[in-house]
Amino acid sequence: ARFRARAQAAGFTAEVPDDVLLAAVRLRFRPGAQGALSAADMAVLPAAGQNYPR
């Protein structure tokens, strides 16, 4: 739930499954990242919300 909320605040607002949302965030901010949701995935989102307007 926290990941989705942060992603939405950063402009990722599509109603998609969690794995698709994670893939979209990674394509934008962490290309090449794999595996389960990690702290590094969460860390990019607050900065994304501040630096990238919707």
UniProtKB/TrEMBL annotation:
Domain of life: Bacteria
This protein's name: N-acetylmuramoyl-L-alanine amidase
Organism: Pseudooceanicola lipolyticus
